[in-house]
Specification:
By secondary structure, the chain is α/β, with parallel strands linked by helices. It is 36% helix and 26% strand. It has eleven helices and 34 strands. A twelve-stranded mixed β-sheet has the order 2-5-9-13-16-19-22-25-28-31-33-34, with helices on both faces. A nine-stranded parallel β-sheet has the order 4-8-12-15-18-21-24-27-30, with no helix packed on it. Helix 2 packs parallel to helix 3, helix 5 runs antiparallel to helix 6 and helix 8 packs antiparallel against helix 11. The chain starts with a helix and ends with a helix.
Length: 528
């Protein structure tokens, strides 16, 4: 990500070296040059003085932010789309001073617009702003500023080719309703945002970033500000390896907020331990990588929108390229051979589990715990393949049983359901064996069936109900024997013969074992 910052600064330096406009200039002269025939306009260190009051039919106070635009519109005729077109290859403002806010509204730049370190002096307003509103920049927007500015606002704009933003000492930066279409053939991250530590809020709302050339996207957001918020926005790239990095470069960053976004690119998060992460209602269509160091207690993570099978960590990524070969999620044998990375991945999900448990979100905590135990089971299976031992084998089987029976101790209700099926299955077996608890019902059931099968003066209805009554008694006796064996109440003498005697012993052991697990699961959830 540092390389993108170098590129941005280099571009602005090159533009500055070739600049021709020095000294002082009036707003009306600037407007005429923007409307004029020169293909390139580059201003370095120019002080723009507001002389527009006398040039307008209806003079206005100099603090009015749209004064420059009104004069510009008097010189340029808007097109059918409502834009006032500036046909320049480049328009560059480097270390320039402005009397008023620099606001472009409904302006179309058929080229590159670069603004570096603007200063607003002599204004009557206390809150200088740089605004690009409902405008279009076809060949790239570059904004860099270390000067004190109240607000940078880009709203309802369209930007093509490349977008580079590097700001500090700005109270707030707001990008909203903006469409950024990147088709720069340069694979070095055409979309890069650097937010310095003196920016209290950076917001990227209701906007879209698209990259269709197939080169590696994207770059991303590097923030040291108090809050980085990305909301209701979408990111797309035609490249399968395209990645968007969201990187905290300084401990001053306190919040990373991602709400209701669609990420059709790989996403990589680099938050330090004390940054509050808020991930809510996002759609991650590709990998979600997380350089996990911990979670601040105030973090909020919507588990349902985390792509569990595609959540993991990147190792060895270079720039904005995020190939699957460098993504670790513990889903194949080669990855499971690396115990250290498996433990790091478990640590990441354990952090989420602790966050949910502390916040009282039982459902999400249980889901995270299941993912941890599944990962552990896959790891043990891989260990068993390479170096088989009875202990590892038993660990695997116990994990598998725990998952089937109680979802690793997170669902006592599931244990009750499974126990019911176990009791029923054994009851079906006992039904066909004699029992001292059930001496006569089976012989009577056979007799009743014969009465029902033979047509006689009794008819069919009465024998049928008599037969079903006997059947239900036999079933009840079989269920009673199965339940007694399962809950290990014990017998003075095992009340059955043949193979069923031994089956009751097996069921008694199984019942004792499963009920112990059930008890642990109940306690685990009760003490959550």
């Amino acid at each position: 990500m540092k390389l993108s910052r170098v590129i941005l600064c280099s571009v602005l330096v090159v533009l500055s070296v070739t600049a021709v406009g020095q000294g002082r200039m009036t707003y009306s002269e600037l407007a005429r040059e923007l409307a004029g025939p020169k293909p390139i306009l580059e201003y370095v260190g120019v002080s723009f003085e507001n002389d527009l009051e006398k040039n307008l039919d209806n003079p206005q106070d100099l603090s009015k932010p749209d004064l420059f635009n009104k004069y510009l519109y008097a010189l340029i005729k808007n097109d059918s789309a409502g834009y006032f077109t500036i046909n320049k290859e480049e328009v560059v403002f480097d270390h320039c001073t402005f009397d008023n806010d620099l606001i472009f509204k409904n302006v179309k730049f058929n080229g590159t617009l670069a603004i570096a370190n603007p200063t607003f002096s002599g204004r009557k307003s206390l809150y200088p702003v740089l605004v690009l509103d409902s405008s279009l920049v076809t060949n790239g927007l570059l904004i860099s500023s270390q000067n004190t500015i109240q607000r940078i606002q880009i709203s309802n704009a369209q930007i093509g080719v490349t977008f580079l933003l590097d700001v500090d000492n700005v109270h707030s930066v707001a990008i909203s309703g903006t469409r950024i279409n990147l088709d720069d053939p340069n694979p070095l991250r055409p979309f890069s945002v650097f937010v310095g530590k003196n920016v209290s809020l950076f917001s990227f709302d209701n906007s879209e970033v698209r990259h269709t050339t197939g080169n590696q996207l994207l770059g991303g957001f590097i923030a040291a500000s108090a809050t980085l918020r990305i909301r209701s926005s979408s990111f797309y790239s035609a490249s399968t390896d395209a990645g968007l990095a969201i990187f905290a470069s300084n401990a001053d960053l306190k919040n990373i907020i991602l709400i209701e976004n669609t990420f059709d690119v790989h996403v990589m998060l680099y938050p330090p331990v004390d940054v509050a992460i808020k991930l809510m209602d996002n759609s991650f269509k590709k990998n979600l990588g997380w350089e996990y160091t911990g979670l601040a207690p105030s973090s909020v993570i919507d588990w349902e929108t985390i792509p569990v099978s595609r959540a993991g960590q990147y190792f060895g990524v270079d720039g904005g390229i995020f190939p699957d070969s460098l993504f670790f999620n513990g889903r194949n044998d080669e990855q499971l051979d690396n115990r250290r990375r498996v433990m790091q991945l478990i640590k990441m999900f354990k952090g989420m589990y602790d966050l949910y448990k502390t916040g009282g979100d039982i459902e999400s905590a249980n889901a995270a715990y299941i993912v941890i135990r599944d990962l552990e089971t896959r790891y043990l299976q891989r260990v068993q393949e390479k170096d088989p031992t009875y202990e590892t084998f038993l660990k695997i089987k116990l994990n598998q049983l725990m998952k089937v029976y109680t979802l690793y101790g997170t669902s006592p209700a599931r244990a009750i359901i499974v126990s019911g099926w176990v009791i029923l299955a054994f009851a079906v077996f006992y039904f066909f064996f004699p029992s001292s608890w059930d001496v006569t019902s089976k012989s009577r059931l056979i007799s009743n069936f014969r009465d029902f099968a033979q047509k006689n003066e009794k008819g069919y209805v009465k024998p049928f109900f008599v037969m079903m009554g006997g059947f239900m008694i036999s079933v009840l006796n079989a269920l009673t024997l199965s339940l007694n064996s399962f809950v290990t109440l014990g017998f003075g003498e095992i009340p059955t013969t043949g193979a069923a005697r031994y089956v009751t012993i097996v069921q008694g052991f199984l019942g004792w074992f499963l009920l112990s697990i059930f008890t642990v699961a109940v306690i685990n959830q009760a003490l959550f």
